[in-house]
Amino acid sequence: MKRKVYLDDLPWEEALERFLGYLKELGALSPGRPERVSAENALGRITAAPVYARISSPHYHASSMDGMAVRSSDTHGASETTPKQLRVGQEAVPVDTGDPLPDGTDAVIMIEDIHYVQPDIIEIIQAVAPWQYVRVVGEDVVATEMVLPSNHRVRPVDLGAFLASGVSHLYVYPRPVVALLPTGTELVQPGADLKPGDIIEYNSRMLGAIVEQWGAIALRKEITIDDFESVKASVAAAVEEADLVLVNAGSSAGSEDFTAEVIRSLGKVLVHGVATKPGKPVILGEVNGKPVVGVPGYPVSAYISLDLFVKPLVFQKMGVVPPEPYMIEATVARKLFSNLGMEEFIRVKLGKVGEKIIATPISRGAGVLMSLVRADGMIRVPRLSEGYNTGETVMVELFRTPEEIEETTVIIGSHDLALDVLANFLRQKYPAATLSSAHVGSFGGLSALKRGEAHCAGTHLLDEETGEYNVSYIQRLLSGRDVVLVNLVHREQGLILAKGNPKGIRGLEDMTRQGYTYVNRQRGAGTRILLDYYLREKAIDPDQIHGYEYEEYTHMGVAAAVKAGAADAGMGIRAAAVALGLDFIRIVEERYDLCIPAEYWDTPYIKRLLEVMAMPEFREEVQKLGGYDLRDCGKVMWRS
Question: What are the beta bridge partners of residue 552?
Fold first, then answer.
């Protein structure tokens, strides 16, 4: 079969407009035939017609207080100097809250204002107005009054209003059915025994949960192998069952990417390829009058494509408009480069440092699902922009509430597994608080402090001349700043090796051999500086080490590269090797500290961390990771 590559490279707004316009002409976006549901089961549904009250609420004059029901005219003239007496049972009738008013009465005197002068006679010293402390008929809802208009999403309070006004059933639009078709010969179901090349099929679960959250019905289908006729049959069957079909994966231009040709063979492809990153290979099409969307296989691409192109369809089918995202102004923590001509969606961590909200970019890979898990928000870089400079103000779409952002302690700097444990115990002890850690290396962390973009920085920089950690670098990079250096852990650094050390590596000298591959940390990382120190000490030229330029940003990234066979060794902490069942050769014990500007020392952001660091449970959990010594945890090691 002759394959076509991308038909288009449209701005996503233009692609969406073309798609929606075509579908509207077909009538494919109109809500379905209204259905009648019970009021008690209407939560979250969209009203297809106005809802009118069948009865008034309350439907009788009701006392709103415990007391005596009276005729207000009988109380005229009552005062402290001229009190009035009323006979109980005749001129004053006892009532409780909610009781109907006895015939002939039009007001209620609170029990607190009643004075008995005899068992059957009360005395009052103040006149009451007509309908005092009375809920008159229809005070809440009047019969025939509109309770809710059309195209309204039913809330819990609305259910109460329906029942109070005598409405037992109402008409709502049907929930759109969205079919999700995972495709790919390499896909296996969660829980299956994995072999190299297998990919767990989780996208349909994730995307299905999103459309369910919007109010649609997710119809998840079985995995379809990469075969044109098989994919075609699956799409044709799904179109018969659903209002909207999502074909996940197979939307790009590879030899086994059949989605565009399948849609074209059954209907029409309107757009193939948009100018977004991630999410470029999205396909917007139609089969038998129903929208069919080819969703890219990478999870971040799939998520963004769903938000841009599927969300508007689902909400229109339900008769409502999507809610506007909550936006907040933030300062970019580091320079962001972006390709001209592509609108890029960059996930960020957020935290309030001083008076500014700081946005720190995290992984930009289309396949890095954890970038969505860890993200607090998303920055959109317009397609006619090449990015943002450090310190520039941008708008961020929030994934968390502003209140959560306000309670976030921002740590930028070197990576350590103990930070994850710290974040977990912080959340347990203070449920409103969170810890945001961005891994940019020790130098990057100290630079972030200099720019006022973090509450503290993780650092483990060795001074080659003195053998002291961190102090000389802080004095140079943060000259004039009052800072406190607090120890988090002492940890073992060394070579992370494949299990069983099959190549018999004994030290850094062995990495100069032919056929050995190394994985390094990024420039500015304390581990990279430590490596370079030992290479100079052993007179090893970095050019002799194959893979010296191969960089990872975390200790776990190094360990994962060794585990996968992408490298034979890499410098990292013992805990990362233990976590993945790898071998480890200790080279040195180093000190990992938190550098804290003095202005944040007495703030909740830091006080909470110090409290958690003192918890025996926290220390015990860190010890379990392996290769840690917490003898100085929480101790002030130096102050400028």
Answer: 521
* pLDDT tens-digit readout, 426-472: 999 999 999 988 888 898 899 989 988 899 999 999 887 888 899 99
Judge contact between 251 and 281, C-beta under 8 A.
yes
- CB of 82 closer than 8 Å to CB of 115: no
Alpha-carbon distance of 50 to 505, in angstroms, equals: 76
Residue 592's CB: how many other CB atoms inside 10 A?
Answer: 25
**Is the pLDDT reported for residue 595 higher than 60?**
yes
Among candidates 347, 402, 398, which has minimal Cα distance to 370? 347
Strand partners, 110: 67
ω into 58 cis (within 30 of 0):
yes
- Yes or no: say if 423 and 435 are a contact pair by the CB < 8 Å rule: yes
- Residue 378's Cβ-side half-sphere holds a number of Cα atoms within 13 Å equal to 19
Which burial class, exposed, middle or buried, applies to 516 when counting CB atoms under 10 A from its CB (0-12, 13-18, 19+)? middle
Q: Which of 19, 68, 520, 47 is closest to 309 using CA atoms?
A: 19
Encode 486-551 in three state secondary structure.
EEEEEEEEEEEECCCCCCCCCCHHHHHCCCCCEEEECCCCHHHHHHHHHHHHCCCCHHHCCCCCCE
Query: Do residues 312 and 324 touch, judged by C-beta distance below 8 A?
Result: no
Show the DSSP H helices in 242-369 as ranges: 259-266, 299-305, 311-318
Burial (0-12, 13-18, 19+ Cβ within 10 Å), 3: exposed
What is the reported pTM? 0.86
Characterise 637 by phi-psi region: left (phi > 0), alpha (psi -120 to 50), beta (else).
alpha
Which tokens hold the place of 114?
A: 């009643």
Neighbours of 304 (CB within 10 A): 24
AA letter at 413: G
- Predicted pLDDT at 523: 86
CB 394 within 8 A of CB 388: yes
Which residue carries 């954890």 as its tokens? 370
What distance in Å separates the CA atoms of residue 407 and residue 598, rounded to the nearest whole number? 19
List, for residues 471-522, the tens digit of each pLDDT value: 999 999 999 899 999 999 999 999 999 999 999 999 999 999 888 999 999 8
Distances (CA, A) of 618 to 328, 450, 635: 34, 30, 15
